[in-house]
């Protein structure tokens, strides 16, 4: 692990040397509340009328939508049938126990054909999440090793808002050149009764997904976390970052509503079985920085308290060598892997990151594993709405974001661009807890096994 970068202590103490392994960090030893089996395999699937070679979980892509309740201990048995380079499953956005993060070469070895691996973790927060391969992920995610994970609020949660009438998933994925929602191209009719429908967008692509609805809607949650006090939006679209999730609450009347991607696939939802609905068209871009209950963000920031560590994550690019290959590679604070900073934290720290995108033209959806961070400001403009918690934050060219998080989940956590080809081109590092070490290695492990998370 430590060969992957150079420790950066962010102005905090150096702390103790590694003395316990990631493998020691496990979920409680009790019977699971939700039990699943996922079998990864090569396959073929007709997408948008084209027969394509894909990779499947349980015979289809997207794989099954896994549903559990907040606080559940989830157990998933992964079997790799015949995916040659091996498979892992990363539980994207779930702030789970450190050993179960599913990153090849960081938290486990890739699972080779004929092998299996059992994931066991508690799901601490309700919301919309997803899962995907984190071995050879540029290829395996693109080919379909993806699925949604929906965590319902615990019935004992007194703060649960009145449940919507209907609850739908809208998982965006592009197979070859065909962009789909829930695996279907074009327009798909879904009967729902009049009332409020929750539409859970998941973007499994490498680039942004611009989504909207033909009726006014509320942005109810971002990256699994509720946005209280959101106002009704009309003529607006929402940019779902690569890897990100956005839940919309759409009001459905006696006429159908179209909800989906601008100039892309959509769901037609409503009581009118003819499936007719107006086309999507929206002009105003939704901005989470100023949305929801005013002052909520400042309150959340002061509840976190002052940071003990301040890190800069400055994204650039230059020519040089990465793993001995000459080329133009991404840099973090001017360095190419393995000279990039590893952000060292201590359990209990409050940590601030300043993320700067210095690459002209390139959008970087930055994904931190195992944590949600509070967005504090963008280009110096403070967040003024409800607390905006993210695990997948889209940073546009020239932008600077300040985010703050509580380091309360020990482990070795990837912090990388979720445009996966960018990650493969060097836009990867880790947030590492002091005292922890991983026994896994990125690169060749045996003749059969190469851990290559991207
Ligand atoms: Cu990127």
Please explain how this structure is put together.
- This protein is mostly beta strands.
- It folds into 3 domains: 163 residues, Cupredoxins -  blue copper proteins (Immunoglobulin-like), CATH 2.60.40.420; 119 residues, Sandwich (Immunoglobulin-like), CATH 2.60.40; 121 residues, Sandwich (Immunoglobulin-like), CATH 2.60.40.420.
- It contains 3 helices and 37 strands.
- The strands form 8 sheets. Strands 23, 24, 26, 28, 29, 30 and 32 form a 7-stranded mixed β-sheet that branches.
- Strand 36 and strand 37 form a beta hairpin.
- The model has no long low-confidence stretch (mean pLDDT 95).
- Bound molecules: copper (II) ion.
- Copper (II) ion (CU) binds next to loops.
What keywords describe this structure?
454 residues, mainly beta, Immunoglobulin-like, 7-stranded mixed β-sheet, 6-stranded mixed β-sheet, 3 helices, 46% strand, binds copper (II) ion
Strand-helix topology:
Elements: E1 6-8, E2 20-21, E3 34-47, E4 50-57, E5 66-69, E6 73-80, E7 90-92, E8 116-122, E9 127-132, H1 137-142, E10 146-152, E11 166-175, E12 178-181, E13 187-191, E14 195-203, E15 209-213, E16 217-222, E17 225-226, E18 236-240, E19 245-252, E20 257-261, E21 266-270, E22 284-285, H2 296-304, E23 309-322, E24 325-332, E25 341-345, E26 350-357, E27 364-368, E28 373-378, E29 381-382, E30 389-390, E31 392-395, E32 400-406, E33 412-417, H3 420-424, E34 428-433, E35 436-437, E36 443-444, E37 450-451
Parallel strand pairs: 1-25, 2-35, 3-6, 5-10, 11-14, 13-21, 18-22, 23-26, 25-34
Antiparallel strand pairs: 3-4, 6-8, 7-9, 9-10, 11-12, 14-19, 15-18, 15-20, 16-17, 16-19, 20-21, 23-24, 26-32, 27-31, 27-33, 28-29, 28-30, 28-32, 33-34, 36-37
Bound molecules: copper (II) ion.
Copper (II) ion (CU) binds at residues 362, 364, 417, 419, 422, 427.
